[in-house]
Amino acid sequence: MAVMEQGVSGLDPGARNAAAGLSIVAALAGAAIVAMLLAAPAVLAAWGVDRPVDALTLSLLAAGAVFMLLGGVIAVPRLGLGGAIALIGVLFWLCGCISFKSFGWVLGAPLLLGFLGAFTGMVSHDRRAADGDATLVYRQSGLTRLTHWVWAVAMFFLLLSGLQIFNARPNLYIGQQSGFGFDNSILDIYAVNGPNGPAGQTKLFGHTFDTTGVLGMSGAADRPVFTAFPGWATIPSYRDLATGRVVHFFFAWVLVGTLAIWLINALAIGHLWRDIVLKPRDLRALPRDILDHLRLRFAHGRSYTPLQKLAYFAVFVVAFPLIIATGLTMSPNFDATLPWLVDLFGGRQTARTIHFFTMLAFVLFFVVHIVMVVLANPINELRSMITGYYRTNVRGREGEER
Ligand code: HEM
User: Fold this and answer.
1) 160 and 100 in one domain?
2) 311 CA: nearest ligand 1 atom
3) 164, 244 in Cβ contact below 8 A?
4) pLDDT per residue over 294-349, tens digit each?
5) Is 148 within the bounds of a domain?
6) How many domains does the chain have?
7) pLDDT tens-digit map of 169-189
8) Which of 270, 293, 334, 384 has the fewest CB atoms within 10 Å, counting from its CB?
9) Nearest to 189 by CA among 173, 172, 203, 206
10) Domain assignment present for 400
11) For residues 316 and 319, what is the distance between their CA atoms, to the nearest angstrom?
């Protein structure tokens, strides 16, 4: 039976109390601030927090307080997991501060306390693992690490510049044609003039949603901006299709080059076969691994678990090739060279739609990826993707190192 984390008895009580206490105090301070923003803004105004708060900021701050509280409580029986959950709370709180554009001591206090609580939990959990039967193994080669961080940066620029390009024509179509004369649009983001003034709307597969504030119309009420995606989600933040295209195409080639280097290295050192391709025994172990992930019990072995292999296999074999191929299909130059690509994807408009939805899949992957890294012990995970060394302190289900 795999033991992922010891019970209370194996923990340093000082570290446990500090992690739990700091996270809970941060959560309570955070909850008090959220309550005052809602019910008594005058009190906060006296402390220098005097701008009106919107629903998004309030939700982010409230989620931050809830996760910090959860992390603090969970840190008592499971220090590492509690610290990780508190860190998720800290990240939510940080996003709330960014959305509120407030970095003063009032909102900064829960952030600092929560971070100290989360960090104490995670570091002492990692040090406890080092005191046990932990072994540091060399898990990620230099080129695996280098290419990973290059594509992480490239994906950031590709996403934001891609949304700038999308804003120039905020509709998606299925088929060969597009334009006012056709009714083959499946996504439409626009602004309307309603009875209560302008509003943002999104029409998806015939269903219309009010997306004021995020899609179609964003910005302050007295200075609304009528773009599909808001300025904070695009590069550049203002309307500039030409710069968006230059940035997008530059990082697209960076991504293609990086993936080529990753593939050559992964083939040469056996990373592809050992860590990414699912073998029959991985498929047999997959249901159990999914259950372990749902119970937040993560194995730490030399290679990835079956679910990790499946996720990374889908990224390398499906998502990256698909987003690159559909991107190339939209290039008139490339169409002239390989005209069958356009037919393969059912037309350039369909290729554009597939490109967009693959981007959404990447965003989903990214969110799950970061949550998993945080929950699985971010110090160990990040150490392996920075230095290459990973702590394997867990024996596999059959008693062997995995
Ligand atoms: C869009 C951006 C990202 C993509 C597409 C991505 C994708 C991937 C893929 C495919 C792998 C497996 C690599 C291999 O084995 O060759 C991986 C591993 C990893 N990534 Fe990311 N990643 C992204 C961003 C990040 C960020 C921002 C972090 C840091 C918080 C991160 C942390 C890690 C870690 C720690 C691993 C190793 C996992 C393990 O050893 O269990 N990634 N990522």
Assistant:
1) no
2) 10
3) yes
4) 998 888 888 899 999 999 999 999 999 999 999 999 998 888 888 899 999 998 99
5) yes
6) 3
7) 999 998 876 666 667 789 999
8) 270
9) 203
10) no
11) 6
Q: What range does the domain containing 116 cover? A: 8-132
Give residues (CB < 6 A) around ligand 1. 144, 148, 151-152, 155, 275, 304, 308, 312, 315, 366, 369-370, 373, 381-382, 384-385
Question: And the tokens for 75?
Answer: 């840190």
Please name every residue paired with 192 in a beta bridge, in sequence order, or none if there are none.
199
- Residue 154's CATH number: 1.20.950.20
Entry field: residues in the chain: 402
| 8 Å CB contact between 359 and 159 | yes
- 261 and 372: one domain? yes
Mean pLDDT of the residues in the chain: 89
Task: List the beta strands (DSSP E) in 195-284.
Answer: 197-204, 207-210
Checking if the pLDDT of 4 tops 50, the result is no
pLDDT tens, position by position, 377-395? 899 999 999 999 998 864 4
Residue 314 belongs to a domain:
yes
Q: Which of 75, 110, 132 is the last residue of a domain?
A: 132
Ligand 1 centroid from CA 332, angstroms: 33
Measured by CA distance, the residue closest to atom 14 of ligand 1 is: 144
What is the CA(230)–ligand 1 centre distance, in A? Answer: 27
Protein residue closest via CA to atom 10 of ligand 1: 312
Q: How far, in Å, from the CA of 266 to the mean position of ligand 1?
A: 15
Residues 142 and 270 in one domain: yes
- Residues 147 and 275 placed together within one structural domain of the fold: yes
How close are the terminal C-alpha atoms of the chain, in Å? 13
Nearest alpha carbon to residue 68 among 108, 114, 111: 114
What is the best residue among 258, 385, 392 to mutate for testing ligand 1's pocket, by most ligand atoms within 8 Å of CB? Answer: 385
Pick the residue whose CA is nearest to atom 24 on ligand 1. 152
Per-residue pLDDT of 221-248, as tens digits, reads 778 899 999 999 999 999 999 999 999 9
pTM: 0.84
pLDDT, one tens digit per residue, over 46-66 is 887 777 788 889 999 999 999
Q: Are 127 and 86 in a shared domain? A: yes
